[in-house]
Design goal:
By secondary structure, the protein is α+β, with helices and mostly antiparallel strands. The chain is built from one helix and seven strands. The chain has a seven-stranded antiparallel β-sheet, covered by helices on one side. A hairpin with a 3-residue loop joins strand 5 and strand 6 (about 95-100). It is globular and about 45 Å long. The chain starts with a strand and ends with a strand.
């Protein structure tokens, strides 16, 4: 991969950061999306849950059923953070959806898409 680009914007109650990497001939090979809390607007845990499931539904409708789903229970965890993982694979794309939750209220969603 040669070049990259990045931008950040407000998306309702979230701050969305997007990074993309492309080859010298302009083909995008990797795109990363990251949803974080917008500090100017209260972003509840429920809003992160809804966004996570909205993204999961959209990707499943376009790539099919995920081949891996792992959900960690933050309440039962001895760790301060929990991570949920969902992975899809199609002929042309691989997608990884991650949800990070912290006992101190931390919330973040990441989506990585690779072109095969």
């Amino acid at each position: 991969m040669g070049n990259w680009g990045s931008y950040q914007r407000n998306e309702n109650n979230f701050i969305l950061k997007v990074d993309y990497f492309f080859t010298k001939d302009g083909q995008i090979k990797f795109t990363s999306y990251e949803w974080n809390e917008n500090e100017k607007i209260e972003t509840s845990n429920e809003m992160f849950n809804e966004k996570f499931h909205e993204i999961k539904k959209y990707i499943t409708e376009n790539l099919g059923k995920p081949y891996l789903e792992v959900y960690e229970d933050l309440e039962k965890s001895k760790e301060e953070m929990a991570r949920d993982d969902i992975k899809w694979q199609s002929k042309n794309l691989s997608a990884y959806l991650l949800r990070f939750r912290g006992k101190g209220g931390f919330n973040q969603i990441r989506l990585a898409i690779y072109c095969n």
